[in-house]
Specification:
With 91 residues, the protein is of the alpha+beta class. The protein has three helices and five strands.
Length: 91
């Protein structure tokens, strides 16, 4: 499951971001996260969201890897929340 938020309020800027997605536990580790995030970034691009914020927990190594594999650059870590920006303008 995945979703795109067209705009961010103050809370979503801290936790949530533009894109949220989830992979069924029994299907994790099969590359679906990379595929899903890549497709969601394409949809965000169609919505003219050129700078995409994505967040995850700092201990969630698989999610952090998926975000980083999709050009995510770590902005900061606060209260165990990682905030990544993806420059979507070149996709």
């Amino acid at each position: 499951m995945g979703k795109i938020r067209d705009y961010l309020n103050d809370n979503l800027k801290k936790e949530g971001g533009h894109i949220g997605y989830s992979i069924r536990p029994s299907k994790r580790g099969n590359g679906y996260g990379n595929i899903m995030l890549n497709e969601l970034l394409k949809k965000a691009k169609q919505k003219h969201i050129d700078k995409v914020l994505i967040t995850c927990e700092d201990y969630n190594t698989p999610s952090r890897s998926v975000i980083e594999n999709n050009k995510g650059r770590l902005l900061d870590i606060n209260d165990h929340k990682c905030r990544y920006w993806v420059d979507n303008s070149d996709l």
